[in-house]
Design brief:
five-stranded parallel β-sheet, Arc Repressor Mutant, subunit A, 224 residues, four-stranded antiparallel β-sheet, 22% strand, Rossmann fold, 2 domains
């Protein structure tokens, strides 16, 4: 699937040139020519990366930037003041390139940001066998079936999935999850584990959690 790049720039010549270069590199391109049009475009589309000019009709690039979330933004601007760059980078921009620029440098910066994004997406999920955990949305699927967990159950399963072949001692488990789940005590841990195990088993028919007598818990090895 092609990755999509949004070009937000009122300079038609620059936009056309970038569209040609990016298309030749295998990207899909969408465009907006003003800050207001950019907000509408982004309300209808979720590009993989945004190239944002600052000097735009209507809303400026600085005004558009705060509305962009979870998409890397590379600022393209003739402004060369260091403080401008600092403010934009602290304000959410992923990178800043000064006009005029070499398209080879811009392409390299695009590749770097897309690579970072892919790494972030990978780090935002855990997968062990047919257990999948999305750390951003805090959702769980077991054998393709959605499972609703409490905050404590989620924290317990997360720790087990981060250490899939390791037995986690009760004391270690309690210590690791204590910041996020202060309600979990040594007395209640067994019940939380029991509830978690039942929810996973009801959803998938599989017992995912193994009790290691007098020590703690681990993910059970699944038969292939």
């Amino acid at each position: 699937m092609k990755q999509t790049i949004a070009i937000i720039d009122d300079d038609i010549h620059i936009g056309d040139m970038l569209t040609e270069v990016l298309t030749s590199e295998g990207f899909s391109v969408i465009r907006a020519y003003s800050g207001t049009e950019a907000l509408y475009l982004l309300s209808q589309n979720k590009p993989d990366l945004i190239l944002l000019d600052l000097m735009l009709p209507g809303l400026s690039g600085e005004e558009v930037l705060p509305y962009i979330e979870n998409i890397p933004v590379i600022i393209m601007s003739a402004k060369i003041d260091v403080q401008d760059k600092v403010n934009l980078l602290l304000g959410g921009a992923a990178d800043y390139i000064t006009k005029p620029f070499d398209t080879r440098e811009l392409l390299a910066r695009i590749v770097v940001q897309l690579r970072k994004k892919e790494q972030t997406i990978e780090s935002d999920s855990l997968c062990v066998g047919d257990l999948k955990m999305d750390l951003t949305s805090m959702t769980i699927t077991a054998n393709g079936e959605s499972v609703k967990l409490t905050r404590t159950e989620f924290a317990i399963l997360k720790l087990l999935m981060e250490n899939p072949k390791q037995v986690i001692a009760k004391s270690v488990l309690l210590d690791k999850i204590s910041i996020d789940t202060p309600d979990c005590t040594e007395r209640s841990l067994k019940q939380h584990i029991s509830n978690l195990r039942k929810k996973l088993q009801d959803a998938s028919g599989v017992d995912y959690i193994e009790t290691v007598w007098s020590i703690g818990f681990k993910l059970a090895e699944q038969k292939s």
